[in-house]
Amino acid sequence: METPAETPTEALSLFDRRYEPNVAEVNQLCDSLMELKPGSQVPYIDPQHDVDEARIVSLFSNNGPAHPSGFITAGSDEAMTRLLGVHWQVGLRPEYVMPWNVHPWYTPGEPHTKLTKEEVQEGLRPLLRFLALVPRASVIVAHGTEAQRLCAAFLKTENRMIYRRSFKIYKARSAEGRSFGATEERQQESLAEMRLAYKDAMARTGLAATGR
What superkingdom heads the lineage (predicted)? Predict the structure, then answer.
């Protein structure tokens, strides 16, 4: 998960690093997707991630505006903090996880509040192209309903990589607050469920998890 820079100067420096070798291929994919829809915006992968090391994909149901950082995030700043905390608690380092959005494109000025069935389906081909660039990834943690629908469509393709890599899908809540319930107790239960999903995903991919 990405943590955007705190000042404009730092943000520019981070953004300028988007073509570093460890993320260049996926960010060039983002460029090519933007070219398919002139005027659209496709957030990039933060250079703290690594295409060669990534074992787990965090797939987000991106029901909200694009983050001003220019990078894929779990959603709002609160959602980002929440998921970053989960990753920290289970010991999941950034290079071992790679984020992606169900529908990569954003239209500047539009709220992007809900994905249609057509938009979810439209995200399938980009997802397949993305997964081809992260050869060690064999797990998708699908955050939210749209992500889970896209993963179901992905499995139905019977793409050879599904069997070659023994892909497994984990269903998880969106990291946005509206998905966590009204009470503090329910929110903690939801965070615990998310931690469990990532810990199991790590174990499946040969990564040692920490915490309970």
Answer: Bacteria
The model's pLDDT over 58-67, given as tens digits with 9 standing for 90+, comes to 999 998 888 9
Listing DSSP states for the chain in one string gives -----SSHHHHHHHHHTTTSTTTHHHHHHHHHHHHHSTT-B-PBPPTTS-TTT--EEEEE---SPPPTTSB--SSSHHHHHHHHHHHHHHT--GGGEEEEESS--B-TT-------HHHHHHTHHHHHHHHHT-TT--EEEEESHHHHHHHHHHHHTT-HHHHHTT-EEEEE--SSGGGS-SSHHHHHHHHHHHHHHHHHHHHHTTPPP---
Distance, CA of 148 to CA of 5 (rounded, Å): 30
Q: State pTM to two decimals.
A: 0.91
Q: Which two tokens stand for residue 81?
A: 């903090």
Residues 32, 109: Cα–Cα separation, whole Å: 21
